[in-house]
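Reviewer 2 asked us to include a model.

Predict the structure of this chain.
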Amino acid sequence: MKLSEKIIILRRRRGWSQEELAAQMGVSRQAVSKWESGQSMPDLDKILMLSKLFDVTTDTLLKNDRKLAPVIFDFEEESGQEGNAWNGIDPANADQAFENKSGESSAMKMPEIPRGKTVDLMMAKKYLETKEYTAPRMAMAVAFCIFSAIPLLFLLGFSQTGLFGMNEAKAVGIGLCFLLAIVAAGIYKMVRVEAVEKPYAWLEKEEFRLDGQAYAFTERVRDEWAGKQSKEMSIGIVLCILSPVPLLVTVFTTQNPFFVLTGVCILLIVVAIGVNFIIKASLLKNATNVLLQEEEYTPASKKTNKVLEPFAGIYWIVVTAIYFLWSFHRESWEVSWIVWAIAGMLFAAISIGLNAYYKAKGK
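Predicted model (structure tokens):
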């Protein structure tokens, strides 16, 4: 079976016209018409898009020995012979050929395939622009929360020197004020980011269809961002690994509490900077994964999350109740922690099992 015939069959299975497929692929209707008539071949990028759009392998599309069951329509030709709807049909005019006598498209007699929401090029651009704006702000908000303990620790160390009349009580009071102020600033940033991203929150939870132009644009953006993301992720990981060095140096060279706590402060500063890089890179990578519905945002994963969301809250409340009942009743605090390990593994197993089920069901 030729590629041109397969494109027609797969398009008809979706109930799409040539114009609709063209819109999905980001090409003209004439281009689709030429593909279906065999006058031209889609290039490699378009074949990959067709494979993803129709949810088939490239081998299925390209190998002539791979056949697809033709779509049979319930109408009689002028001769009164009933048969395969593709017989004698010019693929270039397939849409017009399948109009029945009442003027209704015979494709309407096919089982309806739910299409869900469609994300077009404009929405994809706005979403990625929004994530590009919010990613560094969310990363900074998390860094603020890590930074928040630094003034308290530094002042506690400084209080050991006795300079400027600083004592431990004053250090704790001033340090806690700084801690709360910095945490409040971080939470404020997080809330603002969530408000900006709210119109697009459904993309992470619901299934949708990405049209051709949006798909090509997202792939291009992912390629453009990949180098920078890899660099930022590497820097962040290296900083987190090296962060204990200042503390280790102070611990092994001096027993002065001020210098030791200063080493802890430097550790937190380096960790905060590293985490900032990691979160920013991860959020931008996730943004393209959300649109392309890859990794943790596949349709199977979304279905799994929908099932687990209402169950998870009840599950962990029950686990907590079991933990406290066992711990208080038996006075087994040194053993009861195992409840969390077992509960965590069980929850992970349920999640993996559901995900595998929905993946298999979707094939």
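The two ends are 22 Å apart (CA to CA). Residues 136-295 form one domain. We have added this to the supplementary material.
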